[in-house]
């Protein structure tokens, strides 16, 4: 459609008179001036950002926590978009005469070359998307490294996130060959092929050293377990973000994944609470004392595993546990939990026994949550072999206990569970987010567990 539209415009250009041509030439001059002003603004913004970086480094000794203000990033993006629209607009409106159907493709390419040359006063370059894509494929490793460095600098992504992106990129490299073009069809095909790849694809050379066709033959013989839709969607989202960055940096004009649809994901089975008999079995088991104490604290506080592991010894004071876990998610990780009398002993034991600043193990630093989570769930599974019953089930027990066994207000229950109250105008506006500690204590003290 776009090609046809350009052709129609070119044919209509034969009617253009000298007055129109003069107007067009003046427009080219104005466009050049506008682009120069835009470039000056961008240079100013980047220069200011460099000064801010230097100031931050001189004050704090590093730039690890420095972030470009979102307003500045948006302004630079807005200026680049404005510049792009100016160029594209002139490409659409550039008038040429003496067009005939025999050489229309050559003239369209020449049209693009001429406008770029007039606007930038640089040697003629083709704006053809396929040429950009071909260049992109040749330098994909360099562009990917640049993208990761950008994310590390401005988004402060974690090592686990980088590991995930690297895994996705490794899959992408598996599918690339000399004839590859990064198009919507290419990624749609990858999405389908993902559904046929084995779960441990890169773990065994018998898989990742084979072509995709050879893999299908192996699948017929082995009937191996394939990647699930959630994993596939994670890879596709990684590619979508990568190519969004490449588009933003103007290495490409179109993100080939912008319209791709994600695969339907299986709904995870809801976690189930433990029965009274199961709780008795767990707390009478020979599971390591530190894990037992973790389970008991979660049962009496409703804390998530990352919150339990975030507790420092200094966070326990005045018969209260102060949760202050910095997190970018929508979960409420800052709150105060009164200490139930049934967990005072295990808290004191942990303070004495555990080395370091944290209450449990090495806290939630690095992969602490993931590793401890796996270990505690393995132990629970040997005691209660039901996959829907994990460490998170203690939180479910707590939720049901304060709902069914206490007379607490709804706001108090939400606060203790760490649920958002942003839509509660009374709590957020009139009470300014403050909470009555006595009401919290009253709720906690109504818990009737005997473990």
Structure, explained:
By secondary structure, the chain is mostly helical. About 60% of the residues lie in helices and about 5% in strands. It is built from 20 helices and three strands. The protein has a three-stranded antiparallel sheet. The longest helix has about 45 residues, at about 20-60. It is globular, with a radius of gyration of 30 Å. Residues about 1-10, about 95-100, about 120-130 and about 420-435 have low confidence and may be disordered.
Précis, in short:
The protein is mostly helical. It contains 20 helices and three strands.
The largest sheet has its strands arranged as 1-2-3
What does the main sheet amount to?
Answer: 3 strands, antiparallel
Structural category: mainly alpha
Provide the gyration radius in Å.
30 Å
Distance between the termini: 71 Å
Could you tell me the number of beta strands?
3
Poorly predicted sequence stretches spanning 5 or more consecutive residues:
1-8, 94-102, 118-128, 422-433
Tell me the helix content: 55-70%
Task: Tell me, rounded to a whole number, the average pLDDT.
Answer: 78
Strand coverage percent: under 5%
Q: Helix count, per DSSP?
A: 20
Q: Report the principal-axis shape.
A: globular
Order of helices and strands: HHHHHHHHHHHHHHEEEHHHHHH
Topology:
Elements lengths: L1 H11 L5 H43 L9 H24 L10 H17 L8 H10 L1 H15 L4 H17 L8 H11 L10 H4 L3 H11 L6 H20 L27 H8 L5 H13 L3 H6 L5 E2 L2 E5 L9 E5 L5 H10 L14 H16 L8 H13 L5 H8 L7 H6 L6 H9 L6
Antiparallel strand pairs: 1-2, 2-3
Feature tags:
mainly alpha, about 450 residues, single chain, disordered N terminus, globular
